[in-house]
Amino acid sequence: MSKLKKTDLSVGNVAKRSGVAVSALHFYEEKQLIHSVRNAGNQRRYNRDVLRRISVIKAAQKVGITLNKIQQAMAFLPSNRAPNKSDWQLLSKQWNEELNHKIRELEALRDNLSSCIGCGCLSLKKCPLYNPQDELGIDNSGAVLLEEKVMEASSGG
Ligand code: FES
């Protein structure tokens, strides 16, 4: 555990400087994405490095990486210093394939939407977007039909 420093920041200061709400900072801390120490008055104090960690979290969230994935990746960051350029390169490399998958999903969604526009059939068999009983959800999770389209597109089929 790190010791208190005079330069440590209060939760209000971190919120103001990072643009992240205090409640979100508490949530990040609960998820162990950031860490604080308590001062004599039992108030949270953050090392200034926390601002860099929050930047990484915000950047990852901006491109759609889930907090769980961010949490897994950030667990490998050193806790005694701010994440640096090479740390960020490692993290972003790790997320690259996931981003490519998301892009393919969005492309498939766009293509499917354009075939649905003006159609209105909402056919369970034919429409890739409509699935009222979530029949495929019994054995699968997520947008199964859409994922199949993405796989087809990826394999050139
Ligand atoms: S609404 Fe007809 S195919 Fe989607």
Write up this protein:
- By secondary structure, the chain is mainly alpha-helical.
- The protein has two domains: 1-83, Multidrug-efflux Transporter Regulator, Chain: A, Domain 2 (Orthogonal Bundle); 85-157, no CATH class.
- 52% of the residues lie in helices and 4% in strands.
- It has a three-stranded antiparallel sheet with strand order 1-3-2.
- α5 packs across α6.
- The longest helix is centred in the middle third of the chain and has 32 residues, at 85-116.
- The chain is elongated.
- The mean pLDDT is 81.
- Bound molecules: FE2/S2 (inorganic) cluster.
The first-level CATH class name of the largest domain: Mainly Alpha
Number of helices: 6
Taking pLDDT < 50 over at least 5 consecutive residues as the criterion, the unreliable ranges are none
Question: What topology, given as strand order, has the largest sheet?
Answer: 1-3-2
Supply the key terms.
157 residues, mainly alpha, Multidrug-efflux Transporter Regulator, Chain: A, Domain 2, 3-stranded antiparallel sheet, 3 strands, elongated, binds FE2/S2 (inorganic) cluster
Structure, briefly:
The chain is mostly helical and 157 residues long. It is 52% helix and 4% strand.
Helix-strand blueprint:
Blueprint: E1 9-10, H1 11-18, H2 22-30, E2 37-38, E3 44-46, H3 50-62, H4 67-74, H5 85-116, H6 144-154
